[in-house]
Amino acid sequence: MKSFNGKVLFLDRNDINTDELVPAKYLTEVDKKALKPYLLEGLKLDNFSKDKIMGKKAIITRTNFGCGSSREHAPWALEANEINIVVAESFARIFRQNMFNCGMLAIELKSEAIFEIFSVFSGLEADIITDIEKQIITLSAGKISKNYSFNISSFDKELVFADGWVNYADLKY
Predict the structure, then answer these.
(1) What stretches of 9-54 show up as alpha helix (H) in DSSP?
(2) Sign of the CA dihedral 55, 60, 65, 70?
(3) Do residues 163 and 104 touch, judged by C-beta distance below 8 A?
(4) What is the mean pLDDT of each run of 10 residues along the chain (173 residues)?
(5) pTM of the predicted model, to two decimals?
(6) In 10 A of CB 28, how many CB atoms?
(7) Measured between alpha carbons, how far is 31 from 35 in angstroms, rounded to an integer?
């Protein structure tokens, strides 16, 4: 199973689309690892540079993450960079399911929780720890630590524990 713990990359914007996650010109790639250098290449966000990705294991963002064209390459590019968890207020439906199909977590929190997270942790060197069984994430930075509860379906949880749809299908069918 993948790791869902580590340093957090804060992307303070709504509607980050799949073209910003991995531009369409790279959709000919069939190897996930080949997508690694292209993650967030098209992101339009003030004060963002690709060097901020290095060492990060999670993304926290706003609403409608992964909107735009439906493509598996977007979660693949995250996975190639060992970013296996994205926390947002909402996700585009197909992107969200593609995350779980890859054995990754797409965690939705209420707008109040996302607002609090950005108010308290954005701009700090924050870490996330995920307890999938209890469905709690813990964010910490220095002496500050806060827990946030989330809900995912039992099926999505099974996909995560199986490390994705292909392994799940191999186990079940």
Answers:
(1) 18-21
(2) positive
(3) no
(4) 96 97 92 95 93 97 95 95 98 97 98 98 97 98 98 97 95 89
(5) 0.96
(6) 8
(7) 7
